[in-house]
Automatic annotation (TrEMBL):
Pfam families for this protein: AAA
Species per Swiss-Prot/TrEMBL record: Brassica rapa subsp. trilocularis
Stretches that traverse the bilayer: none
Protein localization: Mitochondrion
Domain of life the protein comes from: Eukaryota
Protein name: ATPase AAA-type core domain-containing protein
Phylogenetic lineage: Eukaryota, Viridiplantae, Streptophyta, Embryophyta, Tracheophyta
Length: 128
C-alpha cells in the first residue's frame, strides 16, 4: 500500500504543477483515520457520508443479490457454449440452480480471501 501511495503522490505532483492540466480527483475511503497527511493536504474538501439506514441497506442488498443472480446465470450459458464448441447442439439453457449461486458465492469468497492475503503481504513488506 505504501508503494502505491508513493507512486500516486509522485504522479499527483506532476498534475498539480502543469497549468494546462484540468483534473478533478475524487477519493473515497472507509478508513479516513488511516489517510496520509500529504494526501489530506491535497484533498481540500471532505464530505462525511454516514452509514446507510434500513431502507438504503435494503437497496444495496437488492443490487448485490441481483448481481449475484446475474453472475450465476453465466454457468448455464457457459455450458451451452462448451457443448456447442464440441459440436453438440444445446437449444435451451438449463434452469438456474442453487449450486450456481453457491459457485458464485464461493468465487466471491476466494477473491476476498486473496485480496486480504495480498493486503497483509503488502503491509508486512512495508513494515519489514
Amino acid at each position: 500500500m505504501a508503494n502505491m501511495t508513493t507512486e500516486f503522490m509522485a504522479l499527483w505532483d506532476g498534475i498539480s504543477t502543469d497549468p494546462n492540466v484540468r483534473v478533478m480527483v475524487l477519493a473515497a475511503t472507509n478508513r479516513p483515520s488511516e489517510l496520509d497527511e500529504a494526501i489530506l493536504r491535497r484533498l481540500p474538501q471532505a464530505f462525511d457520508i454516514g452509514m446507510p439506514d434500513r431502507k438504503e441497506k435494503y437497496e444495496i442488498l437488492k443490487v448485490d443479490i441481483f448481481e449475484l443472480c446475474e453472475k450465476a446465470t453465466y454457468f448455464p450459458i457457459r455450458e451451452i457454449l462448451e457443448k456447442e464448441g464440441k459440436g453438440r447442439p444445446c437449444p435451451v439453457p438449463r434452469p438456474l440452480s442453487q449450486l450456481d449461486l453457491e459457485k458464485v458465492l464461493d468465487w466471491i469468497w476466494r477473491k476476498f480471501l486473496l485480496c486480504r492475503r495480498r493486503r497483509k503481504l503488502q503491509q508486512a513488506s512495508t513494515v519489514g
